Fold this protein.
Amino acid sequence: MSKSDTFENSLLLLLFNNTAVANIGDAGGLRATVTPGSLYWALHTADPGEAGSAVTSETAYTGYARVAKARASGAGGFTVTANSVSPFENIDFGECSAAAGGPITHFSVVNTASGAGIILYSGTMTPNVTMAVGVIPRIKTTSTITED
């Protein structure tokens, strides 16, 4: 069973741009929130998997913290088009200043700034990021999450 392409795109717009989906449940549909808040990008040293949480295999290099992006379209937020979402701007994480830990192999989009939040989406970092002092991991605007 699958979702229609139109609904996949509408779902991404709701989650990432805070755009209401009309005519679901009632005429008001799935409503956007008054205060949309942020989603957070996290980095992992292994695939957190579908059963994992935001802390599953999360990197712990010195200088790392999750990066917030507004649930909005355009600057500071996300671009949603054709059932795919990407960051509007590059996402730069903190610079590694000491203990590098393992290579960064995966990313996730989660609902909390720290702790065991819910993973909304995760994927492979291509290419993987080999960590060392001075490295600043980056997720580029060409990185996409696709609903299908």
Observations:
- The longest strand covers residues 119-129.
